[in-house]
């Protein structure tokens, strides 16, 4: 089993590693780098708990090989906050009770992070479509929609004030 | 739930990819979006010795207007199709369909080439390409050939694509202005394949249908092109009885399997109903009706 | 003494963050940063991974298991089979229902995907490599899939191991595939009432096999420390103490040498109550290899092997007079428990609390008979977001009363009004043996009808019917029975179903509390702190709540069946009150008055009729420095609470659907849920629970089913097929409430998490059937997939 060298940027930091080609990105993150915020909920790319941001796009890291991320730029839940300052989305999820067991939350947040860049002022329906690749069993989504709305408003107000 | 061992290759050009395909033959497998292949590998239902990742080949990406033909690089993602202004204007059935394929993350990876080449009757693009009378460019070290989408599909997971060939682009005859088109899909939930789906394109002139094509998804071993369905509306005003006749013809052509999406009877009926809805929708979008 | 004195009473009350406040959740801080600690996040030095070779057959003899090639695979260290576990007596394990279940298939397999061998390897990739190389030779046996044929004379015998036993843990049985027969009620009187009644209705109503499927699957890390002989198991356990006791009983390791830890758990919904072969095999593998061993279930394994729910095949009947007043209820149930009776209910209740089938209605007499059978399907029978078999019971009675309404021509809301147990009847003794604690059903339903403009909806429906359009209005007025439970009638392996809370007040006035329950997303760290905050006048932010570590938490029976608030929540309030009682003595001592001179005011004891007071914070310091003579230092206590009764949350739900008559697609236009869970601890958390429970009810009603083909292949056991609705499919929810406190609970709370699932499912079904009620349709099978709805449309010729 020949391993390959990869280098990539994760949450702004350069990472170099030797990986076996068959190592899935989610396992690389969780087991090699101890970035355990992204989770595994299925094997078939349906649940979205493993969602990370790769080269400016939301992807399901259970269905991408780590070698494919070579040279890429990755953002995971661990990189969402700015130091101790919460991202508006994290604040929104806290304020609007957008999580319960917390297992789907990191994937949901990282997906919403990209959604708000693709569409800074989404309608509730657009939010629902935007997070339709992330399954949650606890919340019924209603408060997640509200949490993302909260963050969008906060970001837009901050930008409006600039 | 982890894949077996393989050698990973990441060619930067089509030529390099073709060389690898030539070298490995059936031991090599092309990795495009990976959302059909990788789960199969995790279940060890697919264990390719060599994986040829074509995602680094810039030449395979992009959508361009060549006048009488729209060319979509095989590596173009469904997300790119969904947000393409060119397609929204000239071939809106493709973004309409892309919105109904999988979910946002999967659309960021899933490619139009993969959807067309995979040979899974559940894929949505094959029926649309058949309705649009698109052709595929297949390249190998031995050269290049064009094959009509209507000729490409042979059975479940079997297509005209040879082991050493790569589907590099999809060529769609630019639809004439005013052509109405629609893709109607009924599914159980986001991320599901169709219970049944129908792609319809039609042209109207002075209230008469001058041309039409109808194709169906996931109600046979391959996407289906029931010519009788299109014939049923051609030359008519696309009134209720013509729509009924087309739906009947679509149902007659359908041979779905019974699965958790529904019985044969239900899925056949939905092939008819989606045909009906797609015709009505396409008609509302067509000029000259 | 401090700033607090300048605050008004209201400000002081608000600063506590106690009962009734929509306090933001304490646990969120880690979850939103990706800093949760779930079992698969745990990594121990030298840790190995184990995974299973599983059966491809539903029913077969195992002729041989050949591990030779697997052991040659790089990274594979061991392949454990039943033969290896037999010397340790771990190849079978006792179930919570008094049956035995195979840990690894012993000579035969009983269902598809049953665990056959446990491959232990350096990582999960190598484990999968090894699994591919284990060769199992089978001799196929005829499978038994349809429970309705289980008791036939010529039915294949599933459990050779117990074929000759005349009971398998839950009373006499009469066939090798029979597990139990359970009857309750007065059969003779019920039959007589049916004989004499003007109107009777009967319907076969199935509640299909489904699965809780939390986003985190089951898993564990087992670590045997050879130096001190202590086994630590981190795992997805809803009931960690019960796991410790059971592990001790089956391994003979003393309980002080076992530590069970539930870290953060990614949803449970009943899936994580039971003991699964993975836990036993990981522990055995750790003992054998001397390394920690991790086992994490795949989604396919989860859906196809651990903890299915329901699979109840019911026939329900009502007898009534011409005015729709119910005179009797009768139910016969065939319960499919799969290959082993691993259902998770209190042991004396083989069909759980199914005798809550009287629902919210004053029914004079009734009779219930439930027969459990084995089939060649995965074992289980867990309570999927409900108290034990309560959702099946609620589904049956709420469907039956709708059918009775149709038969009598009485409006579906009106017939409920006519049959409700009235507020003045509480405590109400049902004909099937329960004492309902409190309720006001008419007010709940009236409020609901008004909120949705029920009359207006019925008018709109009539107009739509004229036009051939299909609109349905579903009403469900359910009553739950939760909070198991009184030790006199509830136990698990002989352990009474009490629960516990230990509270320690630190010298500076902050608190740590530990409970025997385990949050799997309900927010216990937040809400239990609120109970203590109100009882002790200490800000909830200064109260830490811990659960899930058996080395530190007091013994408890865990979280399921909506028992945390009714039982552990009561223990929490009572522990706090014991502390307050001691605090009062200290306050009297410090203020040099008698206890009779003192009155409690939010966060302090005050000398009545004066400004003199001492805050709880100051009392805490005094407890460690200035106490009355003869008193022990410190301010801490533990309470073990044995509830005198269950609690009976209830609600009134109304669902409005529109049906596409060409595709069978059902659109939920509106869903209004009024819940009464007694005292409301945290309205924000309650609403979240209701949203989630309704979404699970929606999933069950509209699409969830674990399907088997006739040869026992489990179909659709992945998220491609199994319906976990996304945000797109999920409707919007409207919530509302009334408050009827529980009279026997210290703070009057009843529990909420499961009501929306119990009441939601019949509300959806009732709405969909109601759309067809004018065509004499009384029932249709669940789940209401597009295909099933279309089948009815097609039969009725409505899709033309």
Describe this structure in words.
Chain A is an alpha+beta fold. Chain A has helices at residues 25-32, 88-95, 105-118, 124-130, 142-161, and strands at residues 4-10, 13-19, 51-54, 57-60, 73-75. Chain A has a five-stranded mixed beta sheet, covered by helices on one side. The radius of gyration of chain A is 16 Å and the shape is globular. The N and C termini of chain A lie far apart (54 Å). Chain B has 289 residues and is an alpha+beta fold. In chain B, the strands form four sheets. Chain B has a five-stranded antiparallel beta sheet with strand order 4-5-10-6-7. Chain B has a three-stranded parallel beta sheet with strand order 1-3-2, covered by helices on one side. A three-stranded antiparallel beta sheet of chain B has the order 11-12-13, with helices on both faces. Chain C is α+β, with helices and mostly antiparallel strands and 800 residues long. Chain C is built from 19 helices and 35 strands. In chain C, 61% of the residues are buried. At the A-C interface, α1, α2, α3, α4 and α5 of A face α2 and α17 of C.
Quick structural summary:
Chain A has 162 residues and is of the alpha+beta class.
Number of strands of chain B: 13
Name the CATH class of the largest domain in chain B.
Answer: Alpha Beta
Through-space gap between termini of chain A: 54 Å
Taken as a percent bin, the fraction of beta residues of chain B is 15-25%
CATH architecture of the largest domain in chain B: 2-Layer Sandwich
Helical fraction of chain B: 25-40%
- Bin the strand percentage of chain A: 15-25%
How many strand elements of chain A? 5
**DSSP helix count of chain B?**
12
Features:
heterotrimer; A: 162 residues; alpha+beta; Ubiquitin-like (UB roll); DNA polymerase, domain 1; 2 domains; 5-stranded mixed sheet; 5 helices; 35% helix; 15% strand; globular; C: 800 residues; Aldehyde Oxidoreductase, domain 4; Aldehyde Oxidoreductase, domain 3; 7-stranded mixed sheet; 6-stranded mixed sheet
SSE topology:
The complex is a heterotrimer of chains A (162), B (289) and C (800).
Chain A: E1 4-10, E2 13-19, H1 25-32, E3 51-54, E4 57-60, E5 73-75, H2 88-95, H3 105-118, H4 124-130, H5 142-161
Parallel strand pairs in A: 1-5
Antiparallel strand pairs in A: 1-2, 3-4, 3-5
Helix pairs in contact in A: 2-5
Chain B: E1 7-9, H1 14-24, E2 28-31, H2 37-42, E3 50-53, E4 63-65, E5 69-73, H3 78-82, H4 85-90, H5 93-98, H6 104-109, H7 112-117, H8 125-131, E6 135-140, E7 143-148, H9 149-152, E8 153-155, E9 158-159, E10 166-173, E11 180-186, E12 196-205, E13 208-217, H10 227-233, H11 240-253, H12 264-285
Parallel strand pairs in B: 1-3, 2-3
Antiparallel strand pairs in B: 4-5, 5-10, 6-7, 6-10, 8-9, 11-12, 12-13
Chain C: H1 9-16, H2 28-31, E1 48-54, E2 60-66, H3 68-72, E3 76-81, H4 82-85, E4 92-94, E5 100-102, E6 108-109, E7 115-121, H5 124-133, E8 135-140, E9 178-185, H6 187-196, E10 199-210, E11 219-225, E12 230-235, H7 240-251, E13 258-261, H8 277-289, E14 293-296, H9 299-305, E15 308-320, E16 326-336, E17 365-373, E18 380-382, H10 390-408, H11 412-419, E19 428-429, E20 435-436, H12 441-452, H13 454-466, E21 470-479, E22 491-492, E23 495-496, E24 499-505, E25 511-515, H14 524-536, E26 543-547, H15 564-591, E27 598-601, E28 604-607, E29 613-615, H16 616-623, E30 636-641, E31 650-659, E32 666-676, H17 683-702, E33 707-708, E34 714-715, E35 734-737, H18 755-770, H19 786-795
């Amino acid at each position: 089993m020949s391993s390959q060298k990869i280098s990539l940027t994760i949450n702004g930091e350069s990472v170099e590693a030797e990986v076996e080609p068959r190592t899935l990105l989610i396992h690389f993150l969780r087991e090699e780098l101890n970035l355990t915020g992204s989770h595994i909920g299925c094997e078939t790319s349906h649940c979205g708990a493993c969602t990370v941001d790769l080269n400016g796009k939301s992807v399901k890291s259970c269905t991408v090989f780590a070698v494919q991320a070579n040279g890429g730029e990755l953002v995971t839940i661990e990189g969402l906050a700015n130091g101790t300052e919460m991202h508006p989305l994290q604040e929104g999820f806290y304020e609007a009770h957008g999580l319960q067991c917390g297992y789907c939350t990191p994937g949901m947040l990282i997906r919403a992070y990209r959604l708000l860049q693709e569409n800074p002022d989404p309608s509730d329906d657009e939010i629902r479509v935007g997070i339709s690749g992330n399954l949650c069993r606890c919340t019924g989504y209603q408060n997640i929609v509200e949490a993302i709305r909260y963050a969008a408003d906060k970001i837009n107000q901050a930008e409006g004030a600039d | 739930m982890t894949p077996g061992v393989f050698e990973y290759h990441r060619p930067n050009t089509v030529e390099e990819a073709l060389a690898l395909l030539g070298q490995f033959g059936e031991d090599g497998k092309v990795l495009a979006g990976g959302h059909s292949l990788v789960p199969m590998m995790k279940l060890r239902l697919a264990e390719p010795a060599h994986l040829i990742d074509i995602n680094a080949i810039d030449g395979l990406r992009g959508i361009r207007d060549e006048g009488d033909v729209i060319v979509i690089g095989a590596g173009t993602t469904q997300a790119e199709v969904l947000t393409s202004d060119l397609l929204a204007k000239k071939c809106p059935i493709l973004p309409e369909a892309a919105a109904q394929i999988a979910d946002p993350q999967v659309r960021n990876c899933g490619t139009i080439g993969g959807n067309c080449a995979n040979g899974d009757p559940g894929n949505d693009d094959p029926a649309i390409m058949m309705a649009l009378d698109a052709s595929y460019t297949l390249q190998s070290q031995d050269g290049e050939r064009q094959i009509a989408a209507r000729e490409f599909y042979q059975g479940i997971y079997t297509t005209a694509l040879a082991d050493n060939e790569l589907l590099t682009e999809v060529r769609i005859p630019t639809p004439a202005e005013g052509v109405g088109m629609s893709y109607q899909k009924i599914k159980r939930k986001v991320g599901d394949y169709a219970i049944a789906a129908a792609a319809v394109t039609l042209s109207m002139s002075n209230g008469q249908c001058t041309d039409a094509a109808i194709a169906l998804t996931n109600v046979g071993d391959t996407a289906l092109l029931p010519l009788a369905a299109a014939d049923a509306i051609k030359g008519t005003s696309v009134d209720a009885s013509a729509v009924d006749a087309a739906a009947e013809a679509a149902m007659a052509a359908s041979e779905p399997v019974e699965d958790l999406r529904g019985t044969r009877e239900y899925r056949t009926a939905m092939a008819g109903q989606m045909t009906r809805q797609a015709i009505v929708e396409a008609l509302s979008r067509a000029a000259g009706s | 003494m401090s700033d607090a004195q300048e605050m008004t009473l209201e400000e002081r009350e608000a600063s506590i963050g106690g009962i009734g406040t929509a306090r933001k959740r304490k646990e969120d801080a880690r979850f939103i940063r990706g800093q949760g600690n779930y079992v698969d996040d745990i990594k121990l030095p030298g840790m190995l991974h184990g995974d299973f070779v599983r059966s491809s057959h539903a029913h077969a003899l195992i002729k041989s298991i050949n591990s030779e090639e697997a052991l040659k695979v790089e990274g594979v260290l061991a392949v454990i089979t039943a033969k290896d576990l037999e010397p340790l007596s771990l190849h079978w394990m006792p179930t919570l229902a008094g049956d035995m279940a195979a840990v690894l298939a012993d000579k035969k397999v009983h269902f598809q995907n049953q665990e056959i061998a446990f491959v232990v390897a350096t990582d999960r990739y190598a484990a999968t490599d090894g699994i591919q190389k284990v060769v199992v030779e089978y001799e196929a046996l005829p499978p038994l899939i349809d429970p309705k044929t289980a008791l036939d004379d010529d039915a294949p015998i599933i459990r050779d191991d117990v074929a000759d036993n005349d009971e398998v843990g839950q009373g006499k049985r009469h066939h090798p595939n029979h597990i139990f027969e359970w009857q309750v009620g007065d059969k003779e009187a019920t039959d007589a009432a049916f004989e004499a009644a003007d109107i009777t209705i009967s319907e076969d109503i199935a509640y299909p096999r489904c699965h809780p499927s939390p986003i985190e699957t089951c898993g564990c890390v087992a670590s045997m420390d050879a130096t001190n002989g202590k086994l630590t198991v981190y795992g997805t356990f809803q009931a960690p103490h019960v796991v410790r006791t059971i592990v001790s009983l089956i391994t003979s390791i003393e309980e002080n040498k076992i530590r069970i830890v539930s870290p953060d758990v990614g949803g449970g919904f009943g899936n994580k109550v039971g003991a699964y072969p993975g836990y036993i095999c990981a522990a055995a593998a750790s003992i054998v290899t001397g390394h920690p061993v991790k086992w994490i279930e795949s989604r396919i394994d989860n859906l196809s092997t651990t903890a299915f729910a329901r699979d109840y095949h019911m026939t329900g009947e009502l007898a009534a007079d011409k005015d729709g007043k119910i005179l009797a209820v009768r139910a016969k149930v065939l319960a499919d428990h799969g290959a082993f009776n691993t259902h998770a209910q209190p042991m004396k209740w083989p069909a759980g609390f199914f005798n809550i089938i009287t629902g919210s209605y004053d029914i004079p007499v009734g009779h219930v008979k439930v027969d459990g059978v084995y089939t060649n399907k995965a074992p289980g029978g867990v309570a999927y977001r409900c108290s034990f078999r309560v959702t099946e019971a609620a589904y049956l009675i709420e469907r039956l009363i709708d059918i009775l309404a149709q038969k009598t021509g009485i409006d579906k809301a009106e017939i409920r009004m006519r049959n409700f147990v009235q507020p003045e009847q509480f405590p109400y003794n049902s004909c099937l043996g329960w004492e309902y604690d409190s309720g006001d059903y008419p007010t709940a339903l009236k409020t609901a009808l008004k909120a949705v403009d029920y009359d207006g909806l019925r008018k709109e429906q009539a107009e739509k019917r004229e036009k051939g359009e299909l609109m349905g209005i579903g009403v469900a007025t359910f009553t739950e029975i939760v909070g198991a439970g009184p030790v006199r009638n509830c136990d698990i392996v002989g352990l009474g179903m009490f629960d516990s809370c230990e509270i320690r007040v630190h010298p500076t006035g902050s608190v740590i509390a530990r409970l025997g329950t385990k949050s799997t997303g309900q927010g216990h760290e937040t809400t239990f702190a609120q109970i203590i905050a109100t009882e002790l006048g200490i800000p909830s932010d200064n109260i830490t709540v811990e659960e899930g570590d058996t080395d530190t938490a007091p013994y408890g029976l865990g979280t399921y069946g909506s028992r945390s608030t009714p039982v552990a929540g009561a223990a929490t309030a009572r522990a706090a009150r014991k502390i307050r009682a001691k605090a009062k003595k200290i306050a009297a001592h410090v203020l040099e008055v008698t206890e009779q001179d003192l009155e409690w005011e939010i966060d302090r004891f005050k000398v009545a009729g004066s400004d003199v007071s001492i805050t709880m914070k100051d009392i805490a310091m005094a407890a460690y420095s200035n106490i009355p003579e003869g008193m022990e230092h410190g301010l801490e206590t533990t309470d073990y609470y044995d509830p005198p009764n269950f609690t009976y949350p209830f609600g009134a739900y109304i669902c409005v659907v529109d049906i596409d008559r060409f595709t069978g697609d059902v659109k939920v236009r509106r869903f209004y849920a009024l819940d009464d869970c007694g005292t409301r601890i945290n309205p924000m958390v309650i609403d979240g629970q209701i949203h989630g429970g309704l979404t699970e009810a929606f999933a069950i009603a509209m699409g969830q089913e674990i399907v088997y083909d006739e040869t026992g292949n489990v179909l659709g056991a992945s998220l491609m097929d199994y319906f976990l609705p996304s945000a797109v499919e999920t409707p919007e929810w409207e919530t509302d409430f009334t408050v009827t406190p529980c009279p026997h609970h210290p703070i009057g709370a009843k529990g909420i998490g499961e009501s929306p699932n119990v009441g939601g499912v019949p509300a959806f079904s009732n709405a969909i059937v109601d759309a067809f009620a004018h065509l004499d349709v009384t029932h249709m099978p669940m789940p209401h997939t597009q295909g099933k709805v279309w089948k009815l449309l097609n039969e009725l010729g409505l899709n033309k």
